[in-house]
Amino acid sequence: MRMATAARAELSLQDTLLPGGAPIARDVALGLLRRELGRFQAQVQRSFESQEIHGLGAARQLSQHMDGILHAIQDYAAAMVPPAPGAKLIDFALVATGGYGRGVLAPHSDIDLLFLTEREAGPRTRRMIEFMLYLLWDLGLKVGHATRGVKECITEGLKDATILTALVDARLLSGEETLFDAFLEAFTALRAQGLAPFLAAKRSERALRHSRYGQSPFLVEPHVKEGRGGLRDLQTLYWLARYAFGVRRMHDLIGPDSPGGGLLTEGEVRGIARAWDFLWTLRFHLHYVTGRAEERLTFDLQPVIAARMGYTRHGAQDGAERLMKHLFLTAREVVRLSRVLEPAIERAALGPPATRKGGDDGIAALGLAFADGKLVAAPPDRDFSREPVLMLRIVKAARDRNLEIHPLAIRALIRHSRQADRLRGDPEASKLFIDLLTGKDGAKWLRLLNETGFLGRFIPEWARIVGLMQFDTYHVFTVDEHTIEAIDVLQQIDRGELNEIAPVATELMGQLQSRRALYVAALLHDVAKGRGGDHSELGARLAQEICPRLGMSAEETETVSWLILHHLLVSQTAFKRDIEDPKTILDIADQVQSPERLRLLLVLTVADMRAVGPRVWNAWKATLLREVYWRVSEVLAGGMTVPERDVRVARAKEAAAAMLPAFTKAEAEMFLGLGYPGYWLSFDSETHARHASIIREAEADKAPLTVRTRVLADRAVTEVTVYCSDHPGLFSRISGALAVAGASIVDARIHTLTNGMALDTFWVQDNEGGAFDAPHRLARLSVLIEQALSGRLKITAEIQNVRREPARLAAVTVPPRVVVDNFASNTHTVVEVNGRDRPGLLHDVTAAISEQGLQIASAHITTYGVRAVDVFYVKDVFGLKVENERKLAPLRAALLEALTPPPLPGGALAPYREAAGPD
């Protein structure tokens, strides 16, 4: 293709010549070029940021201006490296390839150039090319370049699909037109040999790219260029169409007279255009904000770019969430367009498949047939628009018979997904859908129905969570993708694949009588997110409308609704309440009431948590969930009625005494007299015996401080036991030392003994959610605790040196919140604090509690991404609950102050700008 008429750079050959015709000095020419480059780059940026042009228009303008710069550079190079008498002034073709060849450039994109020669480049041509490249590099441009002859281009292209793809977009900038014509002729001959090798190469390249940048188009920090549903996927469609048919616009594929006989509809071409422009606009903002070729839309950039693009809060969604929903819907549209266009190109280029109806009476009876051994709707009488239930029949047949659905049938699924409206409440459709949901590989088929758009039409409430992002670092996926992941985890449990990770849930799965209700509850548990209010309560009400449409009985509907209402009950109890407190267990038992519901809740909780992200589930959390289940299960079974406190304490002391055969009677009595009732009810007999040994040894040695560590590999935690003299602020100092050591506290129990000593137990993990088990780190941890308690460790200063979170997370805000509950426990005031997690947060919060004159009995620490939710069971100095508002008001104020993080110097993007460096 010849160079299009462009908004030429104002610099021309005349500007590079002295009055006598000699070229100006190189440094002078470089200055002129630099000013011209800066002028048009600034002009495009101003036009873009004032919204005079969108991303695609800006990309084209940058490309056109760059054409002019390169033309001027080639002219200047020809003058600076004069030819021999009678020789051509320029004997090669300057060709743009890659994205630049398509006539689009991002602000910090590479410029891909091909210096096309007739034969091997001579000395003067090599000098000219070298001269041009050094000028481009001195201008600060990133240049990809190659010098090849026509035959060499074809040869190298056949060896390397990346080179071949770049040549698809080749565009003449200046120089030898006849040489470029020869290249076009050779390349056209190559394309005529068939699409198959190129198609296979692009599919392989795409698979590798998706495996690197994410198989899902719904990752919350997506790669706009290389991720699934991103620009590269759209470009792949263009490359295939260009290679197969020689077209340069998708619009050329509309209509019966177009190549392939009309592969796209007007609506699909408009969808491609919208996706192109939106993704290019997003990419321009990424480049301008970061000052580099940044293609990943990270958390810190999302609110900035949302504001630049005009996304503001609307209802329950803030601007960043609205931007991301638009992006995810665009990515889904790109995925759908790929499923529509790619098989159509393949069929048109490689020839239509042979379709047959016969061979399987069962398939024919369903209204289906085979094409190339894959399932399609039986032509010519059966199609999805007239008989939409075929869309579910074909998916079920593919699952049951282990067959593939033909790409053309998937294309029809996408094009006719709106017809799913007609299936709502249809008995056959509901039966088929529930069968797909609860049967083999249900998550796989749900994902297909979601990506094609069927699911959002069949269940309209689902459409509102498609592409819905929660702006936090806890959730890895959008709400719809997380839900499908939860279904996948349920099926892994069902198949016994998670027996080692979740043995109790695996065992319970086989005992369930309400399996259908469990799967539907998993499908709908987050369906009310994004509506404002409590999504559990709203979801429970929506389930009462949705379940009857899906053919669920009244009993099943009630079970699904109840499960959605309480789907967070088990996890919140395990991670935020003292499960040694009898009232905690009795409260959850009163809500559950049924062993079957308890089983359902546990399995649903495991599926929900494991579907959030790879780092959310760990052995410690699994242990806590199992403890809650077994304790509540005992109450529901009537095997334990939670006897009176004194009786339980007496039994605990008897069990502990039986574990102390090496103790003298006096030693044993001394230990048994140390603990208050809360201590004896907090640990098992083995732990009591271990504590007895620690205390006996410390008293014998008159040690002022004893620190013991124990790695619990099966729980993925390390237990740290500290025995020392009790004093106000002890918990705060120890937690500060643990933060300096790099340990994260996941649970803690604090006990003051009758001898005035403190016996505090902390369960800690490393930054990866595993046990804190390296010997040198454990030794350092003990030393830091001793230094903190002796006052030699400057905790506040040392915490500042602890590794900070990545800058990309700085924009995720967590409003501080304090909740005081005097009903959750009969003996303690429960204080819950919510805030942004940071090194030393627990130190600051517990210091504030101690300064208010309160004693901490136990602490339960949970983090959700960057959000910390810490719960403390506290009493006043007299051992009583804190119920007086005059004491609670200053406590809340002190905790809110402790939760408020220090401001980030230079604003949210300061670390990012520093990393970006100069342009």
CATH architecture of the domain at 13-193: 2-Layer Sandwich
- Give the biggest sheet: 8 strands, antiparallel
User: Which superfamily, in CATH terms, is the homologous superfamily of the domain at 13-193?
Assistant: Beta Polymerase, domain 2
Distance between the first and last residues' Cα = 33 Å
**Mean of residue pLDDT values:** 87
Low-pLDDT segments, ≥5 res: 1-9, 904-919
Instruction: Estimate the strand proportion.
Output: 5-15%
InterPro entries: ACT-like_dom_sf, ACT_dom, HD/PDEase_dom, HD_domain, NT_sf, PII_UdlTrfase/GS_AdlTrfase, Polymerase_NTP_transf_dom, UTase/UR
Catalytic activity: [protein-PII]-L-tyrosine + UTP = [protein-PII]-uridylyl-L-tyrosine + diphosphate; [protein-PII]-uridylyl-L-tyrosine + H2O = [protein-PII]-L-tyrosine + UMP + H(+)
Pfam families: ACT (PF01842), GlnD_UR_UTase (PF08335), HD (PF01966), NTP_transf_2 (PF01909)
Keywords: Hydrolase, Magnesium, Multifunctional enzyme, Nucleotidyltransferase, Repeat, Transferase
How would the blueprint of this fold be written?
Layout: H1 26-49, H2 55-80, E1 92-96, H3 98-101, E2 111-117, H4 123-138, E3 143-149, H5 150-159, H6 161-168, E4 171-175, H7 177-192, H8 196-213, H9 231-245, H10 266-290, H11 302-308, H12 319-350, E5 355-356, H13 361-365, E6 368-371, E7 374-377, H14 390-401, H15 407-415, H16 427-438, H17 442-452, H18 454-458, H19 460-463, H20 479-494, H21 503-509, H22 515-524, H23 535-549, H24 554-565, H25 569-576, H26 582-592, H27 595-610, H28 619-637, H29 645-658, H30 665-672, H31 677-680, H32 685-701, E8 705-712, E9 717-725, H33 730-740, E10 744-752, E11 757-765, H34 775-790, H35 795-799, E12 817-821, E13 829-836, H36 841-851, E14 855-864, E15 867-875, H37 885-899, H38 910-916
Parallel strand pairs: 2-3
Antiparallel strand pairs: 1-2, 1-4, 5-6, 6-7, 8-9, 9-11, 10-11, 10-14, 12-13, 13-15, 14-15
Helix pairs in contact: 1-2, 2-4, 2-10, 5-6, 5-7, 8-9, 9-12, 10-12, 11-12, 12-15, 14-16, 17-20, 20-22, 20-27, 21-27, 22-24, 22-27, 23-24, 25-28, 26-28, 27-28, 29-32, 33-34, 33-36, 36-37
